[in-house]
Design brief:
The structure is a single chain. With 382 residues, the protein is an alpha/beta fold. The chain has 13 helices and 16 strands. Strand 1, helix 1 and strand 2 form a beta-alpha-beta unit. Helix 1 packs across helix 2. The longest helix has 18 residues. The chain starts with 22 loop residues before the first strand and ends in an 8-residue tail after the last helix.
Length: 382
Amino acid sequence: GRAAHADTGAATTTTKTKKKPRGVFILKVRKAQDACKTVCTLSHFFNKEAGYPIRIFADEPVSDQQMEQLRNSSGGVGADIQVIVDTQRWRQIPSILNKTERELVIQGCINLDKPDVATCTAMNVHIGYIYMGYWRYMHMADEPSLQEFDYFVSLDADSFLTQSPSHDPFDLMDTNNLNGFFNILAFQSGVMINGIQEAAEAVVPSLDERKDRYLDHPNYTFMDDKGPWTSHYWSIWGCFYGGRLDFFRTSQFKKFARTVAPFTYRFRTDEQPVIAVAWSLLGDGNKVWYLPMHDGIEMGVFHHGWVDNKEIVRRDVTPPEDQKHLYDDMLRRNQSYWRHTLNRTWDGFQELRMGKLMKVEDYTKTLGYTDDWEKCWLEPTK
């Protein structure tokens, strides 16, 4: 099988002579305090020294006490952390939808007059959660508080660092001239595939220009040789990824995103396939890195029971035969990672891989980290 990419030594650290990239960590949450554990581990393992700004976008107001808690989690008084609150947009069906689109969306919604309990889509998903995905592809890059930055890294509020990253993610993008990176190759399924193919054809009508589009390596083909995305429905997971903000400000991406918007509110087609397919279709696929396939890059991200999200083999998909060696390679790498870095048994890894997940609080107790790190999981003093 294909060997993993060789890593470039130049990407390891920001040198003294090189200007620091203008990067920002972003979290989109319902309540600002939901980000405390993520911010705490980020600070402990990386950002207390690196000092990149953190911007938290919340749906509910933040109190002075909560702001103090966040600031303490991010390293104290000198930390550059801001909470941007918008209590209104998440409550509403997007105004950019035309009359027909709006009517179709409303048909699938319940309790729109009560936003706190309102749901949309056939899956009855809370309207605030739907808005989170919509915001990430439609509004994030245009937020006034992000205009001074070139690069972003987006973290879910249930994604945590478990070790010092091998690379500064912003320097990684800047040094290698990347449009983006991601940590998990995912698959969309069911109704959540709606809107992506329509957007691809709307923005790139030419079949010849649309086919054979990939991310990082031709093995990860997002648009196949006949032009559709439907060969694998490949996507990324939104728990940890990053990119250039100006990519999301281009007219082509805006058109792509606008086409998907009504499908997001009808079928929960979220930011993950929007960003992934747009990266492959509208830019150079070689400039978006799939991190597990680059030797030497270990970000140590914990999410949904996975460390560094290198599981790859999932119970609900069977990898295509010509890519199976890649999946097997990732499985071997994660097996080694668990056995040696985390001192976990293969049986323990298998339990997690099969979905028998522990609570984060219980899981962290098995890792043997310092008391200082474990304080990230303690409730703040009232």
